[in-house]
């Protein structure tokens, strides 16, 4: 308010001064010359242009799988960018693809978008709800050009769900959660296979040339940077497919990792090496085309690694798909010449929802007062080392996940049904309820064998009936000491907080598969299939026509009787 008052005062003073000079000039020619000389004096420095925003999202990268976390996989580019920027070492995402991406692009928890269960499947008539304002939409309002390259995975069953309809000027990438890195084909089930590479709203058949996706996406990023005017602000969202399964990489990247006996780990290492090189090429392009000095580069993984697919989260517990730290604590950093403090480690609490308000504020955009966000503007926390405004994180509440057999309201002190899978962080405390999922610690030596093995894993055998866990994450980031029995009052406080969050939840969106999603009905490519204007034909008044239509219908048994549009969840 004080700054606003000073600016307002300065504007009024400027107006009065200009008015006085103008009036004086009108009555005295000599004064007019003096005025001209004053106006030719040193000009005020123009406001710096909004920064270019580059958000790079890796897929399934484990917490340990970066050089500066002690990995045997070399990542010189990531290490250098992080060392010269700010490492985020208390940074959280969601345990799977769709949830992290939806929260990044909306700034809202899963319980507030209806996407709190699992991921969006290729055959589901589901997508990020259309009434949610997205980050690229807000950045476009602020004058940005918005481009997305890579994996979408936020639904596509109708055209309105596509990236170009959700705020991106251009899109080049895949719609599904995974697929072949070279052919860009994906089979969801037998006889349900299709091509999954898009250029804006159409299948990019012209790019069906066997190019490895990490390199192909990097090439497209370079083309965008080469053709865009660096004086106009740019938002570039690069969502790489790597290092998600299937485990594939160009042959040359395997050479340096022959010493890794575990084949999945070796393939994963090759994929990560290629990704690291790709990010180096993106950084070089930012410098070559004049963006770098006014750019903010944010790097993040979308969830923890999957040990069975080569990823490693050591020393954290658990894996992708779980709410243990190994599933949700991510590799992340910010690199930018615009950072006030560089070469630092930020241990303040930050969540993936925070990027939405942070980037809009950096872009000098506007957030409507009635917008209900779960994210916070954390730029001063990152750039200046200030305290984070965030005190808690709702990791999730999933009411339809497999219920814990021994969970009950009684175990939750009458405050919460502990059969429900949920997790919450408040200050130093973290509470989990329900079925926690895969909970082993997987040390690096687990990958020393030629085949997949859990011999070295630290397995956990729980006391029968346990459905509540409490940890002090600050003191025990590896979740080794359960404190739920020692601090029942803390458990009650966090259960009450869960209950409060649950009152704001919207119904879960997880519709059954729609057979019309089959790529065979869409020219062999995955893509939108739901048409709003599809209506049943009115019966003909002419009896002959009616009989003829009946005969035609008999010859076309593939009309899939009973699949009315009203049976499917809307967008």
UniProtKB/TrEMBL annotation:
<dbReference type="InterPro" id="IPR000917">
    <property type="entry name" value="Sulfatase_N"/>
</dbReference>
<dbReference type="InterPro" id="IPR017850">
    <property type="entry name" value="Alkaline_phosphatase_core_sf"/>
</dbReference>
<feature type="domain" description="Sulfatase N-terminal">
    <location>
        <begin position="51"/>
        <end position="363"/>
    </location>
</feature>
<feature type="signal peptide">
    <location>
        <begin position="1"/>
        <end position="27"/>
    </location>
</feature>
<dbReference type="InterPro" id="IPR047115">
    <property type="entry name" value="ARSB"/>
</dbReference>
<feature type="region of interest" description="Disordered">
    <location>
        <begin position="32"/>
        <end position="51"/>
    </location>
</feature>
<feature type="compositionally biased region" description="Basic residues">
    <location>
        <begin position="549"/>
        <end position="564"/>
    </location>
</feature>
<keyword id="KW-0378">Hydrolase</keyword>
<protein>
    <submittedName>
        <fullName>Arylsulfatase J</fullName>
    </submittedName>
</protein>
<dbReference type="Pfam" id="PF00884">
    <property type="entry name" value="Sulfatase"/>
</dbReference>
<keyword id="KW-0325">Glycoprotein</keyword>
<comment type="similarity">
    <text>Belongs to the sulfatase family.</text>
</comment>
<keyword id="KW-0106">Calcium</keyword>
<keyword id="KW-0479">Metal-binding</keyword>
<keyword id="KW-0732">Signal</keyword>
<dbReference type="GO" id="GO:0046872">
    <property type="term" value="F:metal ion binding"/>
</dbReference>
<dbReference type="GO" id="GO:0008484">
    <property type="term" value="F:sulfuric ester hydrolase activity"/>
</dbReference>
<dbReference type="InterPro" id="IPR024607">
    <property type="entry name" value="Sulfatase_CS"/>
</dbReference>
<feature type="region of interest" description="Disordered">
    <location>
        <begin position="506"/>
        <end position="571"/>
    </location>
</feature>
């Amino acid at each position: 308010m004080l700054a606003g008052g000073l600016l307002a005062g300065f504007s009024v003073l400027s107006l009065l001064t200009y008015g006085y000079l103008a009036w004086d000039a009108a009555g005295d020619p000599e004064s007019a010359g003096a005025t001209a000389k004053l106006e030719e004096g040193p000009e005020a420095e123009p406001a710096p242009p909004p920064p270019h925003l580059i958000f790079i999202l890796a897929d399934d990268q484990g917490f340990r799988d970066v050089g500066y976390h002690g990995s045997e996989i070399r990542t010189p580019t990531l290490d250098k960018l992080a060392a010269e920027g700010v490492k985020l070492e208390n940074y959280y995402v969601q345990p799977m693809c769709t949830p992290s991406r939806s929260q990044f692009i909306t700034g809202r928890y899963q319980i507030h978008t209806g996407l709190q269960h699992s991921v969006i499947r290729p055959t589901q008539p589901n997508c990020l709800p259309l009434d949610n304002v997205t980050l690229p939409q807000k950045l476009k309002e602020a004058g940005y050009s918005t481009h997305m390259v890579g994996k979408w995975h936020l639904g596509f069953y109708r055209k309105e769900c596509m990236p170009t309809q959700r705020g991106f000027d251009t899109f080049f990438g895949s719609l599904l959660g995974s697929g072949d890195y070279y052919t860009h084909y994906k089979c969801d089930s037998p006889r349900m296979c299709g091509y999954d590479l898009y250029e804006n709203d159409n299948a990019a058949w012209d790019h069906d040339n066997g190019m490895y996706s990490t390199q192909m996406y990097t090439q497209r990023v370079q083309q965008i940077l080469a053709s865009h005017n660096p004086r106009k602000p740019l938002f570039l969202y690069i969502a790489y497919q790597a290092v998600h399964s299937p485990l594939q990489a160009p042959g040359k990247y395997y050479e340096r990792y022959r010493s890794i006996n575990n084949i999945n780990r070796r393939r994963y290492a090759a994929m990560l090496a290629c990704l690291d090189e790709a990010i180096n090429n993106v950084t070089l392009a930012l410098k070559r085309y004049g963006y770098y000095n006014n750019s903010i580069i944010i790097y993040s993984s979308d969830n923890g690694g999957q040990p069975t697919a080569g990823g490693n989260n050591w020393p954290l517990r658990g894996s992708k798909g779980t709410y243990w730290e190994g599933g949700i604590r991510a590799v992340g950093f910010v690199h930018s010449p615009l950072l006030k403090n560089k070469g630092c480690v930020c241990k303040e609490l930050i969540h993936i929802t925070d990027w939405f308000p942070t980037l809009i504020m950096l872009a000098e955009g506007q957030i409507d007062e009635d917008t209900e966000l779960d994210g916070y503007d954390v730029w001063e926390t990152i750039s200046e080392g200030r305290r984070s405004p965030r005190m808690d994180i709702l990791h999730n509440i999933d009411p339809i996940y497999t219920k814990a057999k021994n969970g009950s309201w009684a175990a939750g002190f009458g405050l919460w049904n502990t059969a429900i899978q949920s997790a919450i962080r408040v200050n130093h405390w973290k509470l989990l309820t329900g079925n926690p999922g895969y909970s082993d610690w997987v040390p690096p030596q687990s990958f020393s064998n030629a085949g997949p093995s859990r011999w070295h894993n630290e397995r956990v055998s729980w006391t029968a009936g346990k459905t509540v866990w409490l940890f002090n994450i600050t003191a025990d980031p590896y979740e080794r000491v359960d404190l739920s029995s020692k601090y029942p009052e803390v458990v009650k406080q966090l259960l009450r907080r869960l209950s409060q969050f649950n009152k704001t939840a919207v119904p879960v969106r997880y519709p059954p598969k729609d057979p019309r999603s089959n790529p065979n009905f869409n020219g062999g490519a995955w893509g939108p299939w739901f048409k709003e204007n599809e209506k049943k034909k009115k019966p003909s008044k002419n009896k002959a026509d009616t009989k003829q239509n009946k005969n035609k219908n008999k010859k076309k048994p593939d009309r899939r009787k009973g699949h009315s549009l009203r049976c499917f969840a809307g967008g």
